[in-house]
Structure prediction request, 232 residues.
Amino acid sequence: MRCDRPRAYRHQPSKHDEAGHSGENVPRDRGDRGAQCGGQTTWCRRHAGTGLVPEYTPTGTEPDEADLRSQADYWVAVNSRRWARALAVEAATGRAICDSDPLKLHYSWCLSMIGAAPRARWEHDYAATRTAFAAGLLGLADAVFVSIPPLEVLRQHKDADPTRRRRHFDLHARLGDSLRQWYTTVDRLDPGRGIWNLPPDGIPRRLPPARKNRTQVDLLDALVTSLPRLPT
Prediction:
């Protein structure tokens, strides 16, 4: 199947005077990324307020790997809708806090790094994402809060909440090292964009300024070429 892409949202970052932060240039879109059971959703709901952009809710009809191109198109369309939602929230409230990074490209890269998905899946996802960047439909968040707790901590969180089904817990736990490599590369490309914890007191007062090149294809390409090489 092919999914229609959402209409383009053009955005030019500007300075915003936040209550208590007069004249401070605050970043607009922020993604939050953590391993499953890492507490990211709880943290986002507690601190994001009206700026929250929820995580995607599975429908049970998502395409599988039988058609990698259609699968890539589907997920890029999903991610583009979340990106558009983040821009709309940002325009209305001054900032958007996304429960998980709107740019999900890291997922297929991490799967390929641990041998859990074919490299072809990553290649299709990258191509579809690149097209979305070129159209201004998807981009890199201004900052990403990254929390990758140790495996034993993740298991404690999982065992403490038996009401939630976590069918892919073991797989997601294996992705921790690759996820760390991805966001280390993001931060190296543009230092200060990676924040390596979920601050218990909420959103820090000082954060990196808003990106002017969120959707530039060159930025995406620079990230991809800077990543560790995938196994052959």
Notes: The two ends are 29 Å apart (CA to CA). Confidence is low (pLDDT under 50) at residues 1-29, 33-38. The first strand starts at residue 29 and ends at 34. Residues 36-54+65-226 form one domain.
